[in-house]
Design a protein that fits this description.
- The chain has 248 residues and is an alpha/beta fold.
- It has helices at 4-14, 30-33, 61-72, 90-100, 125-141, 165-179, 182-197, 204-213, 231-246; strands spanning 22-28, 35-42, 48-55, 78-84, 108-112, 145-150, 201-203.
- The strands form two sheets. The protein has a five-stranded parallel sheet, with helices on both faces.
- The protein is globular.
């Protein structure tokens, strides 16, 4: 049988006036936030000064999941709380969730971290794991169902379309972290956190790695060629989440 939130959607779909809506929340970093392309910002002298980031929350996986659920429960009301912030990590998410998420009393919360956490190297794995456990336990105590979702892999190579020394240096560091298994060790810690807390794991990282193992250039599937999946690949997250919600 699927998650309890599906019963809320079913009841609301059957009796719109008599039943309450369902609230789905999403806690995470830039991918959850809906960040896509990252381009060098040029000043009037054509010199690079920082970066321009494209924000497009209507094409983030939270919006895609809402579309899927509306297809299945067209008369239901679904409230979406997107508490993703670009640049965030799991310890900071644990700190801010009482302000940004818990007041909305979500019925289901999707938690997705790791992209920024992994920059701390192996020394940060325990801190990442413990923060995920803390987030999950707080959500459960507040009455929310929880799905822990792993993100997609970081860039596996320095893409030829990356412009500017800073972005290419960033890609080089990410590719090295991918190659030496550093990012994979963080994903193993996420899986451990889900198992220890007894919540469903939506392992999108494993799905992307299966694509990679079968010859897919996963770096081409990143909108910024670094760590933001394309709009099309956000559908993979949404579909995977829907499958997790309906799983026995």
């Amino acid at each position: 049988m699927g998650m309890k939130v599906l019963s809320l959607l079913s009841d609301k779909n059957r009796d719109a006036f008599g039943k309450r809506p369902a609230t789905l929340a999403f806690l995470g970093d830039s991918v959850t936030n809906g960040c896509f392309e990252v381009l060098p910002a040029l000043n009037l002298n054509n010199e690079i000064e920082g970066f321009d980031v494209t924000f497009d929350s209507e094409h983030a996986y939270s919006a895609d999941l809402r579309k899927i659920l509306f297809t299945l429960y067209p008369k239901a009301q679904i409230n979406i709380i997107n508490a993703g912030i670009s640049g965030d990590n799991a310890p900071n998410g644990l700190t801010r969730m009482e302000r940004d998420l818990l007041p909305y009393k979500p019925d289901l919360t999707v938690v997705c971290y790791g992209l920024n956490d992994s920059g701390a190297g192996d020394a940060g794995i325990d801190r990442y794991h413990d923060a995920l456990v803390g987030i999950i336990e707080k959500l459960k105590a507040a009455g929310s169902e929880v799905i822990l979702m792993t993100p997609q892999p970081i860039a596996a190579r320095v893409h030829s379309q990356l412009k500017g020394d800073a972005l290419r240096a960033m890609a080089k560091g990410l590719a090295e972290n991918f190659a030496n298994g550093g990012f994979d060790r963080y994903m193993q810690a996420a899986r451990k956190a889900a198992e220890e807390t007894g919540i469903p794991l939506c392992d999108c990282y494993a799905r992307w790695m299966q694509l990679y193992a079968n010859g897919v250039d996963i770096t081409d599937l990143l909108a910024n060629y670094l760590n933001h999946p394309t709009r099309e690949m956000h559908w993979l997250f949404a579909m995977a989440l829907a499958e997790t919600m309906f799983a026995d």
